[in-house]
Structures are given as C-alpha cells and as structure tokens.
Amino acid sequence: MIEWSEQGEQQRARWRSEAGAPAPARVQPADDTLSADSAYRLACEGTALLWRGDFQNARQLLQALMRRADRKNPKAAAKAAQKLAGATPSERFHLHRQAQAQRARTLGALLIPVAGDYSIPLRRAPDWREACTEAWGPADGTPSVVALRELLGMVGAHEWRKKGVEIPALGAAPGNRIHPHYGVFSPLRGEYIDLVAQALLPSTELAFDIGTGTGVLAAVLARRGVRRVVATELAPRALACAQDNLQRLGLQGSVELLEADLFPPARAPLVVCNPPWLPARPSSAVEQAVYDEGSRMLKGFLAGLAAHLSPGGEGWLILSDLAEHLGLRSRDELLGWIAAAGLRVLGRQETRPRHSKAQDAGDMLHAARAAEVTSLWRLAVAQ
After folding, report:
1. Is 274 helix (H, G, I), strand (E, B) or coil?
2. How far does CA 153 lie from the centroid of its chain?
3. What's the chain's Rg over C-alpha atoms?
4. Which of 4, 5, 6 has its CA nearest to residue 15?
5. What number of CA atoms fall less than 13 Å from residue 214's CA on the CB side?
6. Calpha distance 301→307 (Å, rounded)
7. Which InterPro entries does the protein's record reference (predicted)?
8. Pairing between strand 47-51 and 26-30?
9. How many CB atoms lie within 10 A of CB 60?
10. Is 180 exposed, middle or buried (0-12, 13-18, 19+ CB in 10 A)?
11. Which fold has domain 165-381?
12. Which pairing describes strands 2-6 and 110-114: parallel, antiparallel, or unpaired?
C-alpha cells in the first residue's frame, strides 16, 4: 500500500510496481501549478509527486523531467568521463546500470491515481482500462497508484500486442506476426531467430524449446516442418502469451505448451534454448529475458541437456558473447560448463547484431556492442 496526507486526511491505495520497488515513503500531491524545475528537485530528493492536475500536463511534465535527467552538467560530465576512461568493461557495465537505475527512480517519481475500475480520475485522461486489464488482470474495485512512466510502458505494450512484430522467418505476411504481451520480452532483435530458421535440422520428428517466452522459436521450428514441438515456460504471462501466439498462427496442434522449469520429462533429437545473455540481476519481469543472475538458466540448460537428448541428438544454444566483451563471463568459463556437462561442440553459426545501439558511438557500452556476435552453438553428448 502507498500512504500520503491530503487536505489534512490520511489516504491509502494499492501500490503497483512492475519492478517490485517499494512504495515511496514521501508523497506530495501535485498539480499544474508545479514547475518542472521544482518537480525535478523534489524527485531527485526522493519525494514522489501524486498528480491531481490535467493528465496531458502530467505527460508534458514527464518529458520535461526526462530532458533535465538527460542534461549534462559540464563539471559532472567531465568527472563521469574521467571515471569511465579508466574503467574496465565490467565497471562500465555496472556504471551504466547504476545510471539507468537512478534515471528510472527520478522519472518514476511522477505518480498517477487509478480508480478501482482502472479509469484515471484526472482531467483529459485517456481510457486505458483495456491496457491495465491486460497487465494487471480484471479490476477488483481497489484504487491504486502507479508511476506515469510505467503506465505509459503498459500502453506501449498494449499497442505492440495489438500490432504484433513481423517475423520474416515465419513466412509471408500477414501470418508471420508475434504479439508480445505485457511483461514478456518482444522478439525485436531478429538475428537470433534467423539462426534457428537457417540451421540444418537434425530431425523433424520432435523438438524441445526451453523457455519459450512469446513462443517465437517454437513457432519457427513448427513452420520449418518439425512435426511436434514441446515448449516449456515457467512465467504465467509468457505461457499465456505463447498460447495466444500459437493460436493466432494456427500452430496449436503442432506445439504443446508445458509449464516447467527448463526441461520436459523426456528426450528429443533437438533441444533449443535461448537463455538470458547477461549474468546480472533483473529489475523487472521483462528484464528476466535479458539478465540472469549467476547464469542460472544457462548453467541449468547445459547441465541437464545430455539427459534430455536422444541418441545422436543436438542441443542448440543461442547466445550472444556480449557478456564476454563486458567482462561478465569468459569464453573459457562457457567452454568449461559445456565440458563439465558431458557435452561437445559440433559447430557454431554466427551473426552480427543489427540493432541501432551497435552503431551508436555515444553509448557507454559501444565498444562491447560493436564487437558483439550472436551464435548458435550445436552441442552433442561427448563420446
């Protein structure tokens, strides 16, 4: 619950945070009379601003806060540049995440009230009840409070869910779209999908897709002619998302969804896994597709793969080497885990990333991103 004082009375509402952040301890009602400079100062000091004015003005205020958060003070910028100049790649990564977290905390200080039916009780507020229902489930009549930045992210996810992401590897339009749900990682980076779409299949009888997410790789395998695909997933949102996508694509008869942590209780001639690429702690559900503290899923996949491969079968590990360029994991460590699991490398197919950050020289992690390679490792049981 979040609590605050307003007009001499104590108020309470449900606190909503996808990242699991605690409810702010200091909350101050705010409206259109609050200047952007004052709002930014209060946000930096840790005071949350519960908006009571015009909704569209709140959106403009958030944009003003973004400009101030991104504005570089010359002295601070020089100090930061000096600190980065002597930093190792892993130190740069952690500084980058710290800066992201600080920015998120500041911008997350602007709060919006949401009524018990998910309507927004502010002037000129849009009707976003459908987006809220998709993210939070059916309304139960309890008023809540959420950061405007998170609310906008929910609406963005709602639009992506309606529009879908075109996946060329699934064939021609319009039957080639994946519709990501809120809190499920969107397959916007297509290079890893293309690797799975182009690799030579060891069998078309059966395949496992471990940690299916939106279901995109399971769908690609089914469209490639694999007669039966078993796709596992642990997150309820991802299971619902994969089920929705498989039905949209008409593949529910070819792909079986199973709630499981990693493997189904069987063996297959092909086992595919695209685990999170960076060994770091995620700060929200959607980040769990990118960050995996201690490489838990990667290690778990490798450790259990031999026991779930049919004789002569292959395990496909789709993994970026960005963690290696950032100093978070070494190639020797990865090869050591493969060997310790009783596996051998049959081959590796590689591709370069096509996303914009790989060409952004101003990005703090540009050197690592520019060198990044995504690989499909073909693994088999060691003889």
Report:
1. coil
2. 12
3. 23
4. 4
5. 27
6. 10
7. N5-glutamine_MTase, SAM-dependent_MTases_sf, Small_mtfrase_dom
8. parallel
9. 12
10. buried
11. Rossmann fold (3.40.50)
12. unpaired
Task: Name all contacts of 247-252 with Cβ < 8 Å and 24+ positions apart.
Answer: 248/177, 248/179, 249/170, 249/175, 249/219, 249/223, 250/175, 251/218, 251/219, 251/222, 251/223
**CB-CB contact of 199 with 351 (8 Å):** no
How far is it, in rounded angstroms, from Cα 66 to Cα 69? 5
Contact predicate 277/328, CB 8 Å: no
Q: Going by C-beta distance under 8 Å and a sequence separation of 6 or more, which residues neighbour residue 57?
A: 32
Distance separating alpha carbons of residues 46 and 24, to the nearest angstrom = 8
Pick the residue with more confidence: 363 or 34?
34
**Spans of all domains in the chain:** 2-160, 165-381
DSSP conformational letter for 181: P
Amino acid symbol at 244: D
* Cα–Cα distance for residue pair 44/264, rounded to 1 Å: 48
Per-residue exposure over 24-57, b if at least 16 CB sit within 10 Å of its own CB, e if not: beebbbbeeebeeeebbebbeeebbbbbbbbbeb
Q: Which residue has the tokens 């070494």?
A: 330
Question: Which residues are bridge partners to 228 per DSSP?
Answer: 206
Instruction: State pLDDT tens for residues 124-182.
Output: 999 999 999 999 999 999 999 999 999 999 999 999 999 999 999 999 999 999 999 99
The C-alpha atoms of residue 377 and residue 341 are separated, in whole angstroms, by 14
Distance of CA 311 to the CA centre of its chain: 35
Direct distance between the N- and C-terminal alpha carbons of the chain, in angstroms, rounded to an integer = 57
The owner of tokens 């080497």 is 321
**CA 88/CA 231 separation, integer angstroms:** 39
Q: For 42-56, what is each residue's pLDDT tens digit?
A: 999 999 999 999 999
267 close to 306: Cβ distance less than 8 angstroms: no
Which neighbouring-strand residues pair with 309? Answer: 268
Q: Given strand 309-320, what is the order of strands in its sheet?
A: 255-259, 228-233, 206-210, 268-273, 309-320, 374-381, 343-351
- Short-list 331, 329, 314, 337, CA closest to 267: 314
Is 267 within 8 Å of 294 (Cβ atoms)? no
What amino acid is encoded at 360 in this protein?
D
Residues contacting residue 190 through CB under 8 Å, at least 6 positions apart: 167, 168, 169, 354
